[in-house]
């Protein structure tokens, strides 16, 4: 990210750095410790709700010997901030390594963050996904 960082982008950069460094404490500090936390992740599970569930998921991810070695923004990121909330969204390539394969996953990501009483911005909603290939069987309908 070359542009000057706004609060949400700074928080997402910290998350991305912690994931790359496999810093579990840094990863978990990126999320609000709340029962309102709701994450739609790129993995085989559809979602995780609550901080405790997200914490368990990231701990299991690290123990599964899965690595995201690099994140490349290919569209965005874009941030909208106001009223103690921020959203960050964009498209990225996730360079991954696991015991099964080495792969680049093209994904879209959206994060909603809330400013805490300590002045830190933390994720309250995260959605990382990849579009389905031709879900209607008609090709791209946008002309």
Give the topology:
Layout: H1 7-21, H2 24-28, E1 38-40, E2 48-49, H3 51-63, E3 67-82, E4 85-97, E5 102-115, E6 121-129
Parallel strand pairs: 1-6
Antiparallel strand pairs: 1-2, 3-4, 4-5, 5-6
Taken from the alpha-carbon principal axes, the silhouette is: globular
Radius of gyration: 16 Å
CATH class: Alpha Beta
| Fraction in helix | 10-25%
Largest sheet descriptor = 6 strands, mixed
Tell me the β content. Answer: 35-45%
List the domain count as a whole number. Answer: 1
Number of helices: 3
Within the CATH hierarchy, at the fold level, what is the topology?
Answer: Nuclear Transport Factor 2, Chain: A
Got a strand count? 6
Give the end-to-end Cα distance, rounded to a whole number of Å. 32 Å
- The low-confidence runs, each spanning 5 or more residues with pLDDT under 50, are none
* Overall average residue pLDDT: 91
What is the second-level CATH architecture? Roll
Instruction: State the secondary-structure class.
Output: alpha+beta
Strand ordering within the main sheet: 2-1-6-5-4-3
Write the element-wise H/E pattern from the N-terminal end onward.
HHEEHEEEE
